[in-house]
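Newbie here. two chains, one complex. Structure please?
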Amino acid sequence: MKKIKLIDVVKWTFLIVMLIFYMLPIYYAVVSSFKSINEIYSYPPTLFPKKPTLQGYVEAIRGQDLLTYLKNTLFVAVVATALTVITTVMAGYGLAKGEFFGRIFLNRLVVLTLFVSAQVIMVPLFVIIRRLGLINNLWGLILPAVYTPTATFTAIQYMKEIPNELLESAKIDGANEWQIFWRIVWPLSKPLVAALTIFSFTWRWNDFVLPLLVVNRRSLYTLQLALAVIQGEYGGIPWNTILAFSTLTIIPTLVIFLLFQRFFMRGIMAGGLKY
Amino acid sequence: MIRKLVRSRFLFVVPSLIFLAIFVLFPIIDIFRMSFYQWDLLTPPMFVGFENFRMMLDDKWFWNSILVSLKLLVVSVPLTFFVPLGLALALYKETTSSKILRALFYWPYMMPAIAGTTMWKWILSYDLGILNYIMKTLGFKPVAWLLKPTPALVAVSLVRLWGLTGLLMMMFITGLQNISSEYYEAAMIDGANKWQIFWHVTFPLLKNTNVLVLTTSIAHLFRDFAVIYALTGGGPGYSTMVTPLYIYNSAFTQFRIGYAYAMSVVFLLISLMITVFSIRAREAR
């Protein structure tokens, strides 16, 4: 028999304790979302629903306009992601390979903006969005999110790796700058485009600060804003509905995560901040 | 002229630059300008000189909000350092089991902060929460997690840890995988045990990663908004009222916009200090 090493015992004990800590909230929330109102408010709590029911889900979808919030969230996430990806890949290319005055300054500026989050400039951001007439408008959630410091920084780093010789030889062959970008740079940037798309979509899907600032009309709520607001409402929404709502909003992030795990778990975005 | 702009590739930067100017640079400049005004959004702003800043000096809840961040710093930053480090040490090898476990620990980081925090609220509920039930079963007294100041700070730290671990663990794993095995072999030949290898070989070699993890954790701490908004709303009382939340309340529930601007100046300067510190620390490798 193989000797059990002390270090392995310590390691696995630690991992199991941690696994319980990290998975218990998710497990218990998902399980509770299938409980009936009676069961969810009964004591002692059960680790598995006695009679699983979709009551919470029905209430979340019908009673809470979840589909409207979903539509809003998807619109914002898809449009903002498209704009972010195109402008960011172009900017990354320009900032990494450009030959204009102030390029180095702009590169430094991008690094500085990495640390300016929406939370820091919340008030002026609200004021400018208001001045642009975008309060209670879904574009007010899209346009301020197009420039994303982390994404831009990543794009610059990526573009620096593209060999200059490639661009030079295309130029000698008579290609103009526009053609060089679309025929050479863009195809070479596929991994970057993929990563930016996945991350940008997730950021917008998860976003809370901007919707909180910009939207106060119910018909324009995003999922996360709605989830936060219904919890604070007088009278109280039953917990099985709230948890069903939460569960539904984490499913897409799980799907994205499982499909594109390698993008998250390693490589070009590993050093990023959450925006 | 246009030809030159095209050739210099400046035009590629323009779209991004416009968004950057409107939604990042303008707000930053606006913070400094409007901090000298009194404004309620309805009537025109009124210039009041340094009045907002004078008010801020006397506002004990503003200073309390910075103190809260510092308290969280003391509890949260060590947690968000050692737990991800522990997980990374246990999981940095490329085996199937460690890949699956990594994904599980990473998942909370991917989730919307509001949804994750909502799940925690359910766990932490005083009378219905499973955590208090478990504690009672084990013979402990139930804790009013979100209703008492110190437990609320602990709860916020735990939820932060839960949400941030994935990112920080991956930073450590990348760092650990970048250490050449020659170092370990050399240490082993010298007869070092695992503990000695960790303290004298691994940990010093992780210096860059350590700095990266610490600065990331601190930067996140000062920008945390959603977790605290959803978990405690800053309460009970002002015990978890961090600066961004206090600024938000002043601006959007009391409509003291000018005052909120003035506080944003201080908050921006704090963020800037952290930025400069982080960049220095990262460049000093």
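Moderator note: The beta strands of chain B are 37-38, 46-47. The domain at 41-113+164-283 of chain B is CATH 1.10.3720.10 (MetI-like fold). Thread marked as resolved.
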